[in-house]
Amino acid sequence: MTAAAVLAAAYLVGSLPTGLALVRMLAGTDLRRQGSGNIGAANVYRVAGPGLAALVLAADMLKGTSAVLLARAADLGAGWAVAAGLIAIAGHNWSVFLRFGGGKGIATSFGVLLAISPVAAAVAAGAWVAAVAVTRYASVGSLLAVASVPLVVWGRGEPRAHLVFGLAALLLAVCRHWANIRRLLAGAELRVFDTRGPVTRS
Question: Is the pTM of this model over 0.70?
Answer without folding.
Answer: yes
